[in-house]
Amino acid sequence: MELLNATSMAAAYTLGTDPSAHERLVVVAKGTFVIPESPHQELETADEQAPLVMADEFTGEPSTSATLYESEFVPFKPRCDVLLNGSAYAPDGRPVHEVAVRLRVGRMQKSFNVVGDRVWDKVLFSLTPTDPQPFEAMPISYDRAYGGMDEAQDNPENRRAYRRNPVGVGYYPLTRRKHLPGRPLPNTAEIGKPVENTTGRHSPMSFGAIGRSFEPRPTYAGTYDQNWVDNVFPFLPADFDPLYYQSAPQDQQMDYPGGGDEVELTNLTPSGHARFRLPKIDVPVEFTNAAYERTEVAAILDTIIIEPDLRRLMLVWRASLPLKRNIFEMKQVVVGRMTRAWYRARDSGKTYYPSLGHLARARRKERGEAEGEQE
């Protein structure tokens, strides 16, 4: 199958399967834009377009660190994920012990506190967190949010993970009091709910992607019991919920944006405040099967990734078409709009050449192949 990309963005395709075991041809397009320095400036397309993410990427070791980017080849997302990889900044660049950060995209908004580094300290006969260290910039990640995995000092096989964020810090249900001094606390917390104990049910606060094992995400994955092994494998279980494909936490999911939605960042850039609007871009995808039947689908914007530290915005669109049998029934996919000349050539059954140079090279290639056959 041929994929023609008429956009300036990255584009590719994959196969997806739904719980009914039907295959779909999934097309993904990803655009990279430069975040403007002023709210009066328009977003510009970046000269360097970020490639599509083929497999999950992490901040460190996959099993013990936060997800940085998740594979962008999922079949379907019921809602739009809003993600941000970045840092908290002290207002006016003056060191602070704590600062509130805020992300807003349209009606979706989320705020929390970012605090300086702290550890547990023994004061007389009690344990207490140290005062936060001042900072000018603090990375925000689930690595630094409340959570983690703890083990008993006298029995390493006795381990317990904080299911809402097993890669975080500050969760010490098995650590004895005498071993707590020096253990770090998280750098983020809900507003009005500081982390001041070792076993509380605190909400891990970050703007990035949640891991596939983070609660409540596994509850959407379905039931993999003996019946699934005997009768369903290798297909998805009937109770699989596509919400599993959402990589953003629930409070960072929104209805599919139509473009033009305002984005506002507070204390997430050195300037302290940034504001811009999502671009209004239509991404049509035309599917042509072997019988030359054409179906056009409007790709949906279902992933927004904001990276203020890099002044980068990445948007991911997705479109899909159910297959009757397999991918071999499809002949061509066009992402975006080709030129009018291309469509005229296609409709008249002719070969389209973008320039005389392309035509000349094609003719030379044909002559070379013909001479090779004669020899």
Any chance you could write out the topology, listing elements then pairs?
Blueprint: E1 2-5, E2 10-17, E3 23-34, E4 44-45, E5 57-58, E6 67-69, E7 80-84, E8 86-89, E9 98-105, E10 108-115, E11 120-123, E12 126-129, E13 137-140, E14 146-147, E15 149-152, E16 155-161, E17 169-170, E18 188-189, H1 226-232, E19 253-254, E20 262-266, E21 273-277, E22 284-289, E23 294-298, E24 300-307, E25 312-322, E26 330-335, H2 340-347, H3 356-374
Parallel strand pairs: 1-26, 7-24, 14-17
Antiparallel strand pairs: 2-3, 3-4, 3-25, 5-6, 7-19, 8-13, 9-10, 9-20, 10-18, 11-12, 15-16, 20-21, 22-23, 22-26, 24-25
Structure explained in plain terms:
By secondary structure, the protein is mainly β. It is built from three helices and 26 strands. It has helices at residues 226-232, 340-347, 356-374; strands spanning 2-5, 10-17, 23-34, 44-45, 57-58, 67-69, 80-84, 86-89, 98-105, 108-115, 120-123, 126-129, 137-140, 146-147, 149-152, 155-161, 169-170, 188-189, 253-254, 262-266, 273-277, 284-289, 294-298, 300-307, 312-322, 330-335. The chain is globular.
